Amino acid sequence: MTNSLCTCPLGVEIEICRIDLMARYRFRLNELGFREHERMRVIQKANFGGRVVAHGTERIAIDGDTAGHILVEVRQSPRSVPGRSALRIVASEVMRHRDE
User: Fold this and answer.
1) What is the pTM of this model?
2) Most CB within 10 Å of its CB: which of 6, 20, 71, 98?
């Protein structure tokens, strides 16, 4: 099922199906990595339908109007994201092993 990027929930992996924008805007999105069949993960919701996506090590913010023109398919359902306390535990474990 095809959705626009602005309706995708957090934590899902998406695949870009189509970008319904003028050529010059598609070109710029293409430079940022938004290409057909490219996979990304939605990591944050912004105001007015905007989204922040993770693409490899990059984090890219897209405004709501543009996100509405990017048609995607959800490829993986949301997974739980560790909270800050879990990240502190992991960080302390890394530091402990580093000092050994």
Assistant:
1) 0.72
2) 6
**Would you state the pLDDT for residue 87?**
46
Cα separation, 47 vs 45, in Å, equals 7
Q: What's the helix, strand, coil split of the chain in %, to 5?
A: 35, 35, 30
Number of domains composing the chain: 1
CA distance 16 to 37: 5
CATH code of the domain covering residue 72: 2.30.30.90
In contact, 63 and 38? CB cutoff 8 Å: no
- State how beta strands 13-19 and 39-45 pair: antiparallel
Residue-wise pLDDT tens digits, 44-66: 998 888 999 999 899 999 999 99
